[in-house]
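CORE FACILITY INTAKE
Project code: CF-77B
Contact: R.S. (postdoc)
Sample description: multi-component assembly, two entities in total
Requested service: structural model of the whole complex
Turnaround: standard
Below are the sequence entries exactly as provided by the requester. Do not edit them.
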Amino acid sequence: MKSLKKLLSLSLVCVLAVSALVGCGGKKGGGNSDTYKIGGIGPTTGEAAIYGTAVSNAAKLAVDEINAAGGIDGKKIEFDFQDDQNDTEKAVNAYNTLKDWGMQILMGTVTTQPCVEVAGKTAADNMFQLTPSASSTDVIVNDNAFQVCFTDPNQGLVSADYIADNALAKKVAIIYDSSSVYSSGIEEQFVKEAAVKGLEIVANEAFTTDSKTDFSTQLQKAQDGGAELLFLPIYYTEASIILTQANTMGFKPVFFGVDGMDGILGVENFDTSLAEGVMLLTPFAADAEDEATQNFVKAYQDAYGEVPNQFAADAYDAIYIIKAAIEKTGVKPDLSAGEMGDALKSVMSELSIDGVTGKSMTWDEQGAVSKSPMAVVIENGAYKAMQ
Amino acid sequence: MSFISYLINGISLGSIYAIIALGYTMVYGIAKMLNFAHGDVIMIGCYVVFTTVTGLGLNPYLSILLSVIVCTVLGVVIEKIAYKPLRKAPPLAVLITAIGVSYFLQNFALLIFGADTKSFTSVIPMNNIKLAGDKLVISGVAMVTVCICIVIMLALMTFIKRTKAGQAMLAVSEDKDAAQLMGVNVNGTISLTFAIGSGLAAIAGVLLCSAYPTLTPYTGSMPGIKAFTAAVFGGIGSIPGAFIGGILLGIIEILGKAYISSQLSDAIVFAVLIIVLLVRPTGILGKAVHEKV
């Protein structure tokens, strides 16, 4: 037994010594690299895996396209995507892993909570950060961070406007996740804007991560209040339960979601007829007829065998936005992450990008994007743009 | 009318908690350990039903039977590998092992079945009943759940009272060493307890996923914790206690959500738990056991 312990401690010492040597050999933040090193972080496993996988796939697609066309000013892009399982701690670990790899620009993270955490780290490193889909305003408090998607308040605002302007309903009920920054951020702004627009909120009900299986009570209250429309600023996993339970109860309002609803048709074995008529506000519809969208959808389908969702589209745009920013500044890949961050963040407000998630996207000083959203409705098991 | 509807939902949710709580309480009563992996055995049971029904097109009843068998075997294997070697270890070590097994099962499911949410089609062929001009809908799953829960509880109580194996369980729960001296096969009895508890977990899983139709590797963990609370609430170690605790917990949760605040429902549930434990530290039906000196 004693010799075993000795052996163990000896081997630990060896491991330590070796890792110290490795540390000496490592380089910090790119240094003399000849390629642009872009990192990505998001959940490719775990509950939000659909989002991270879509982002990772689409970003790789965009990077391959750019590299095949000769790179950025002759320099290739290297891309590495790390899984964070939608967990803040794992996201920070992933960030550190990517930094060790030599990441100069971060395209991520995909989901809000981990992104807020990672944004604190990128601010300290002055690393340029562009998140495809983390939509809280907390993500872009620092001047090095930018978004491709709408901010949460903006989604709430636009949803309320859309419902009121198109006279979809007068009496509205909300079910939201009070334990999520994303969901409560949208809810807050929606309630404010609904008051301005004269929508009556007959039930505003919450749930938390710890009680997200039973929604019968919230639905009952919405039904008792006579809601004509149920606003669901939540992710698709919970939304799929709500749709099933509402169906059991015989409650049939208009269901209106935001970008988190995207993915509901991808839930394995979900009865998609329940989602028929569900509306959601999203900047991307795969059946849009413009050339850019068509090309992207085709390339994505050829590569991965499925129709890209909005997260994929955001990530695809993100890579092209980074490319445009690099071209605008003319930064070379041999800069450190911090130097590159200084250059890139200064030109973001000057860019105007046509992407698959919007035409002439621009950014304000805050880092929030300005583009117009599109409403889609689920018809015959597919997203269809609403006129 | 809404009140009745809330009450029915509460009883239905509570019955699921109760069936899970029965598993917790039996294992605690007999092996004196908290099997935190119980919730994850439920999840494995759900995946067995999901894959066999959706993937292989098996008859739902056969798949439930298969799921019960898989869970029973799993429960016994977990006990043999993870808990039995620790029979003489301090309770804390066993508790940590149980948490470890729980994480192992979650990650195992993550690896095998992937992280995507699966939508579970209800395997309960009972139709919803509509009363009072469609104002009141009682779901078929809710009725089946309540009935199964009562049947299981009564069957378990009879089993323990009337059979030799049941008597052996009682003996082991009172005093392991004395039971051994009297010729009771202690290890066998504990294995049997795990087998029954895990078999119940499979049934609870089918009902849980039929009522709340999503399935992820984390499906079992929160209901597991709530059911554990229910078991403590009713008096851990007591079978009718687990039943009453489960039902009350479900009703308090739903009514709290309906009439106080949907955001505070869990806070209300646990506040009630704290009050009950302050007044009756052993839970509603728990027996005070005096430490023998």
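Facility notes:
- The first strand of chain A starts at residue 36 and ends at 42.
- Residues 20-31 of chain A have pLDDT under 50 and may be disordered.
Invoice: internal transfer
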